[in-house]
Amino acid sequence: MAEIEKMIWISIILIIIISVKDKLKLALPILLVLAGLILSLTRLIPSIEMSPEMIFYVVLPPILFDAAWNTSIPDFKKELPKISTLAVGLVFLTTTIIALIVHSIIPEFSWPMAFVLGAVVSPPDAVAATSITKNLPLPRKLTTILEGESLLNDASALIAYKCAVIAIVNGAFSFWNAGFQFIIVSMGGLAAGSVIGFVFLKLHKYFNGNSSAETFAVVLLPFATYSLAEHLGCSGVLAVVILGMFLSWNSFSLFSAGSRIQMGHFWDVIIFVLNGLIFLILGMQLPKIISDIPSSAIPVLVLYGFFIGIILFFIRLFVLAVFPIFSRTQPEKEKNFLTRHKKEYIILSWSGMRGVVSLAAALALPFQDDKRFIIEQRSTVLFITFVVIIFTLFIQGLTLPKLIKLIKPAAEEEQNEKELKKLLLEQSVLFLKDLKADHKMTQSIINTMTQKLEKEKLIQQHGAQPYTYKTYWKKGYYELELKLADHQRKELVRSYHKGDFSLEMIRKKEWELDFWTTTIDQEIEALNSHISVTKE
């Protein structure tokens, strides 16, 4: 079966799984990996080979760019010391400890190969963490640390991995050379991402506000940046992360409203498809991975994988206990045993799922060294890595959402949203008061708008008001608008079928109706939220 046919069938299966996800009440990555394992065992669809190039050059750049784009730069800077502890210190410590343990317990495992396995399983997966914790009530600080760690730890792990692979291939390893290489590769990646972002900033004016051209350029940039950085011997991961943050920081003034809306929808689809396909294909890799493993060795290697998965958790727990990730700047007033910072420690300790980057690194391990000798234990590294991924995804991934709902960490999103709304209202009132009218009609409009904003400001200051007849009247009004929009849409379709108007004109009016409907839906959702809060 041709690769394109396999992708079509796998995509169809992906759509079916997504449609039943809510009924099964499982996190999507878990469900997709499970489905992939079932497909691989039943051989209903021939497996698609997951090559390292596909992961590093096709899947990783857009996912990293999207995560960096949606990262709050001020929050990231504030939590950078803690993020660095996890993304650099924890990764290198994990690599070393796993190497020591593996070299001790697995027969004939060389030091370089032990360090390779340590580097491969050391970074938690960015896709798994964000997919599983998405839409869960997490504190802002904890979310920032988790997302920041997932952005940077791949770079640290891949640099350590490359150093270990060089030692295997060349038969020599130098600690000082490895440290020097880490600095050069990291700084080179940061420089490459910054330069490409700056160049795009200067060339952007030549797009002349063309939303489609801007969207295509931004989609292409992560792939080009990663490829260029890697060819220059720098960290492609860091280059893409810096590029995403740089463009996100400048996006408010760089792109038009239309471009931002179009890019947002386009990126949502890309990331959704990539995340879905990659976990489904990951689960389908089992036949290839066990093909070089003797049947008698599989149970023992599975136990090794489980043991390493447990050790990974305890290493993470140890680092979080020793280093003050969450400092107590204010005395805790909670009387419960599980105070806020303890809850955050528990969640952060349990958020160490491994994923596609680990498997891609294991698959990228060469078959032969410089002297054309076959590298032994390559298949062992690959199999143990797969077991660790499945173990952490199913054990930690399945229980993490339930753990978060059970211990209920304090999420500040609702309060933060109120504070932001208050700030915007205050600044809007000040802007209108300073605005000079051109004539009487303009002043009348300014006064009316100022009074409206002052009223909203007063309502917010006194908290949520009881749901009144007016609230229900507004809700009924918006629902009537929805019915009106639906009626207009039916008239559009009828007119198009009769051939009264051109398709271009019909599409334009349809887009206006869609935008109108989306706005009304948001207003109704806000009213429903207001009613539910006041009822409580």
TrEMBL record:
Subcellular location: Cell membrane
Pfam family, one: Na_H_Exchanger
Matches recorded under InterPro entries: Cation/H_exchanger_CPA1, Cation/H_exchanger_CPA1_bac, Cation/H_exchanger_TM
All copies of domain Cation/H+ exchanger transmembrane, residue ranges: 11-404
Keyword Nucleus recorded: no
UniProt feature coiled coil, ranges: none
Record keywords, A-Z: Antiport, Cell membrane, Ion transport, Membrane, Sodium, Sodium transport, Transmembrane, Transmembrane helix, Transport
Bilayer topology term: Multi-pass membrane protein
Residue stretches spanning the membrane: 28-48, 54-73, 85-106, 179-201, 213-229, 235-254, 266-286, 298-326, 347-367, 379-400
Family: Belongs to the monovalent cation:proton antiporter 1 (CPA1) transporter (TC 2.A.36) family.
General function of this protein: Na(+)/H(+) antiporter that extrudes sodium in exchange for external protons.
Protein name: Na+/H+ antiporter
